[in-house]
Design goal:
Largest sheet of chain C: 8 strands, mixed
Structural class of chain C: alpha/beta
Shape of chain C: globular
Distance between the termini of chain C: 33 Å
Number of domains of chain C: 2
CATH superfamily of the largest domain in chain C: P-loop containing nucleotide triphosphate hydrolases
Radius of gyration of chain C: 21 Å
CATH class of the largest domain in chain C: Alpha Beta
Radius of gyration of chain B: 24 Å
CATH architecture of one domain in chain B: Orthogonal Bundle
Helix content of chain B: over 70%
Strand content of chain B: under 5%
CATH topology of one domain in chain B: MetI-like fold
Strand order of the largest sheet of chain B: 1-2
Distance between the termini of chain B: 5 Å
Oligomer: heterotrimer
Order of helices and strands of chain B: HHHHEEHHHHHHHHH
CATH architecture of the largest domain in chain C: 3-Layer(aba) Sandwich
Strand order of the largest sheet of chain C: 6-7-8-3-9-10-12-11
Number of strands of chain C: 12
CATH class of one domain in chain B: Mainly Alpha
Chains: A mainly alpha (300), B mainly alpha (335), C alpha/beta (339)
Strand content of chain C: 15-25%
Number of helices of chain C: 13
Chain lengths: 300, 335, 339
């Protein structure tokens, strides 16, 4: 990441806000930038799935059952990555599956970040019984392994898109809440907060207008890293069969579909998994770049 | 850790464990479907019989009382009846537990064996080839979906090269009288090398799959801990003593740099518990994780409830253990 | 206590001889020359004091001598000769044999210099195992342990046989400092580099530790380099002293001579900082200003910005000139200032 170092030595010609400087540092880091672009392509693919997909992802055709990828014997180029056990085009299903992963990843992280930030701010700034109550709940939720908690909730609520989002949010909010609480505890002692307190600014004003803008960058950085995690969790739930239900195309359930055919049709499981890996890897790289750009003290 | 600090730390565990069991209880109480109706589904039960059964199970009592009964039963290991197996939940779980423990321990050992040397070398030769490879490797390790990676390993090593078995824990014909119920250990204890080889060949792929995300995290922890230690005064002082470089790295530096790694390893072992469900399902490993997933589909809720509680309690205790470990290993924070 | 070195000068060659030493650190802002043309001699059996503010290059000079300049710093120029050996040509094995056995070092804070995870026994014994050649083949471990206990006794650790298996954090600050000295001296080195040995200690314990070093120096017949920012310590414990400023030696001479008749304006400023019994009422005048950034210096006296005697002719590179018996200073206005 030498590029990032060089960029920070250059003296800016105009006066720039720290956030803008961070974004410039990010743009200068080509590796992370490329990963960011890959993530954007996935997002576009999710939105424009009908235009990207060469076939109808739900159209079954038993004549094409387990048809191999184009470059293998018996493959054809209009079904590049081959077909699954019901003769559905794998590439088209992967493209539609992007919608599930991105929707759930975004929705869970967004909702959890909003809830977590508000509760973290309250706990860190108000202290007292509010802090005790929130911290206790956090402690208890931390007592469950993530996937097991989600599985138990899914067992309770039954499958479905909304339920997956709910099941993950129930625990996910703890992550931003802890980060925010920690940052707020540190910020409380800062001069700008004491100054605001000294002039008698109302609590809500201090929490949301003074402290929040100052800790927002750490919240954003943490949220992007968590996106990757949530996407893998959703895929795992769908793989186990307690997430997104058929016939909806989800990467996790597509991998599960292929399990029965690993002896003679490896492509059914392989390609959806590569899609998960590509998206999660890009998010991880991009968020690492974001973290370095926003908070250079973390990188070494 | 002094006894007093230990006691106060233990008392902090109580509300967390209590909270965890409340959540497990509430979760299962809110589960749709009356357990009695599920149990009596295949029998023509009269409303009176249903009522009698509800009464027997205590389902007609107030929630708080039911929680009290649930808690006191749980404390004595009574988790009710697994109506799918027609046996006590406790027995069913106890039967499956050793397989999960074996897999988890193997994954833990594997993760440590990969990450400690890798992290040390990456830190010592910072920005070198090993460091870069380790960085890429740990990025992949955290990004790989375990269920998919497991399948790829099966396709490669079991289907293509036919080196390792596709699934299961042991081939038929290898009956080893149990000692610890861990197949690899038992086969060695009973002097059955061929069974050991068989058990190991079944264990290696699932353990590798399970260990990878953990190894990725631990490599990073080990590397940054080592980098920090190498910057410290006592390393300079050790070098001024004219002792060998090897001794400085593996004795002076590593003994300090292991503290965070071991602590994080204890915490991460908890996350292996979750990974178990996926990996056991992929590899047909006859452990608790797979049992839970199967139980969800047959609505065997008492078992799910007991297993989730067991996982959570183990997880909390592991975190507590990590805490104690950190303070004991690190003389400077010793209370 | 104030043995004069004049007799030694005539009779023996220096044990350590540093010439035109230059040590650099590449940084983002440019190449920092932390040590820039330092000449120093340490004679057998003497105690040389090195005085200067932090950032004057006094610690880096001796990190260069023992080959432990922290990465990415490096020795760029000059010669370092120790007992006739050119240290700059040593390979890593040569360094390893030299360190701990011939040249030993103590650091500022024993709390961070001692490994928190290893017992005191292990930390002393490993030096002995690495260097002591006269150990018996049989019962080597026992002999080493005995010698380690003996070292602890020598530096004044009470009940050393019992406490040797304790960890560093179980000792008090002063005791830890003594343990560090015991480790450094366990192989009877010819030269001890004591880097700020008392800065981290309480005033009462400072004197004990310094007396201990002086006593051991006489007892073991070694030379000591005492690095400090405290001229009071120098006055009491050293034979000769070199004052460093901004990577250079600005004044050097016999301790008594230098303290009684300081020549360089910087030294005079430092001495103004010593509260002496004789002139307790005299106002203490701190030197104003800061050490200059050590990047691209040259063409001007380094003390120029802070000097109350600066003149236009100081705008040039200044070299050391003789200002008294065995006494040199880096100032071209010495004669005028003394008027």
């Amino acid at each position: 990441m030498t590029a990032a170092v060089e960029a920070s030595v250059v003296t800016p010609e105009r006066i720039e806000t720290p956030a803008w400087q961070s974004l410039r540092r990010f743009a200068a880091d080509r590796f992370s930038m490329a990963a960011g672009i890959v993530v954007l392509i996935f997002v576009l693919m999710a939105i424009l799935a009908p235009w990207f997909a060469p076939q109808d992802p739900y159209e079954t055709d038993l004549l094409r059952r387990l048809q191999p990828p184009a470059w293998m014997e018996g493959g054809e180029w209009s079904y590049v990555l081959g077909c699954d056990a019901l003769g559905r085009d794998i590439l088209s299903r992967i493209i539609y599956g992007t919608r599930i992963s991105i929707t759930i990843g975004l929705a869970v992280v967004l909702i959890a970040t909003v809830i977590g930030t508000v509760l973290g701010l309250a706990a860190g700034y108000l202290r007292g019984w509010v802090d005790i109550a929130i911290s206790r709940v956090i402690d208890i939720l931390l007592g469950f392994p993530y996937l097991i908690f989600a599985i138990a909730l899914m067992a309770m609520m039954g499958p479905g898109l909304q339920n997956i989002i709910l099941a993950l949010v129930y625990k996910e909010w703890v992550v931003p809440a802890r980060v925010v609480r920690g940052e707020v505890l540190a910020a409380r002692e800062m001069e700008y907060v004491e100054a605001a307190r000294a002039v008698g600014a109302p609590r809500l004003h201090i929490m949301f207008r003074e402290i929040l803008p100052n800790i927002l960058s750490s919240v954003i950085v943490v949220s992007t890293i968590r996106m990757a995690h949530v996407i893998i969790l959703e895929a795992s739930l769908s793989f186990l069969g307690i997430g997104v239900q058929p016939p909806t195309a989800s990467w996790g359930s597509m991998v599960a579909d292929g399990r029965a055919f690993i002896l003679d049709a490896w492509w059914v499981s392989t390609f959806p998994g590569i899609a998960i890996l590509a998206l999660v890897l890009s998010i991880n790289v991009a968020s690492q770049g974001l973290r370095d750009a926003f908070d250079p003290k973390f990188s070494d | 850790m002094k006894p007093l600090a230990l006691i106060s730390r233990i008392t902090q565990l109580v509300p967390v464990l209590l909270g965890v069991s409340v959540i497990v209880f509430v979760m299962m109480a809110l589960t749709p479907g009356d357990p009695v109706e599920i149990m009596l589904a295949d029998q023509q039960a009269t409303p009176e019989q249903v009522q009698a059964m509800r009464h027997d199970m205590g389902l007609d009592r107030p929630a708080l009382e039911r929680f009290g009964i649930f808690l006191s039963n749980a404390l004595t290991g009574d988790f009710g009846l697994s109506f799918f197996h027609r046996r006590p939940v406790f027995d069913v779980i106890a039967e499956r537990l050793p397989a999960t423990i074996e897999l988890t321990l193997a994954a833990l050992l594997l993760a440590l064996a990969i990450s400690i040397p890798l992290g040390v070398v990456a830190a010592v030769k910072k920005n070198g080839v090993v460091d870069r490879l380790a960085a890429i490797g740990s990025l992949f390790g955290t990004s790989l979906p375990g269920f998919w990676f497991g399948i790829i390993l099966i396709i490669l090593f079991a289907v293509q090269f036919k080196l390792l078995p596709v699934s299961g824990r042991l081939d038929f014909g290898c009956e080893v009288p149990p000692v610890t119920h861990l197949m690899t250990v038992d086969s060695l204890l009973r002097g059955r090398p061929s069974c050991f080889a068989d058990a190991l060949s079944h264990l290696i792929l699932p353990a590798l799959t399970l260990s990878l995300p953990m190894a990725a995290v631990l490599t990073r922890v080990q590397r940054s801990a080592m980098l920090e230690v190498l910057r410290s005064d006592y390393i300079v002082f050790a070098e001024a003593k004219g002792i060998s470089r090897r001794r400085i790295l593996w004795r002076h530096a590593l003994k300090n740099a292991l503290v965070p790694t071991v602590t994080v390893a204890a915490i991460e072992t908890g996350s292996l518990l979750g990974g178990n469900m996926v990996v056991e399902t992929v590899f047909g490993w006859p452990g608790l994780g797979r049992l839970v997933v199967e139980s969800i589909f047959v609505r065997n809720y008492p078992l799910v409830q007991a297993a989730v509680l067991l996982y959570a309690v183990t997880y909390v205790l592991l975190n507590f253990f990590a805490d104690v470990l950190y303070t004991t290993l690190n003389p400077r924070v010793r209370l | 206590m104030h043995s004069t070195r004049s007799s030694a000068t005539d009779m023996s060659a220096p044990l350590l001889s540093v010439r035109s030493l230059k040590t650099c650190f590449p940084t983002r802002a440019g190449l920092v020359t932390a040590v820039d043309g330092v000449d120093l001699d340490v004679y057998p059996g003497e105690c040389l004091g090195i005085v200067g503010e932090s950032g004057s290059g006094k610690s880096v000079t001796f990190a260069s001598v023992i080959g432990l300049v922290r990465s990415p710093g490096y020795v760029a120029e000059g010669s370092i000769r120790f007992g006739g050996v050119d240290l700059r040509r040593l390979d890593s094995n040569g360094w390893r044999r030299l360190r701990g056995r011939d040249i030993a070092m103590t650091m500022q804070d024993a709390l961070t210099a001692l490994n928190p995870a290893l017992t005191v026994a292990e930390q002393i014994e490993e030096v002995l195992l690495a260097h002591a050649e006269d150990l018996p083949k049989r019962g080597r471990q026992a002999a080493v342990r005995e010698r380690a206990i003996e070292m602890l006794r020598l530096v004044g650790i009470p009940a050393p046989a019992k406490r040797i298996d304790d960890y560093p954090h179980q000792f008090s600050g002063g005791m830890r400092q003594r343990i560090m000295i015991a480790i450094a001296l366990s192989c009877r080195p010819k030269l001890l580099i004591a880097d700020e040995p008392t800065t981290a200690l309480d005033v009462t314990i400072q004197a004990q530790v310094l007396d201990l070093i002086s006593d051991l120096r006489r007892e073991l017949g070694m030379s000591v380099v005492l690095i400090t920012h405290d001229l009071g310590v120098v006055a009491e414990h050293t034979d000769r002293v070199a004052v460093m400023y901004a990577g250079q030696v600005v004044e050097a001479g016999p301790t008594r001579e230098l303290i009684d008749r300081p020549k360089h304006p910087y030294t005079r400023g430092l001495i103004g900082l010593i509260p002496r019994l004789s002139d307790l009422d005299a106002p203490i005048r701190p030197i104003e200003g800061q050490v200059p950034e050590l990047i691209g210096l040259g063409g001007i006296c380094r003390f120029y910005d802070r000097c109350e005697f600066r003149a236009s002719k100081c705008r040039t590179d200044i070299s050391m000139i003789d200002v008294g018996p065995d006494h040199r200073a880096r100032c071209i206005r010495v004669e005028e200032i003394l008027q």
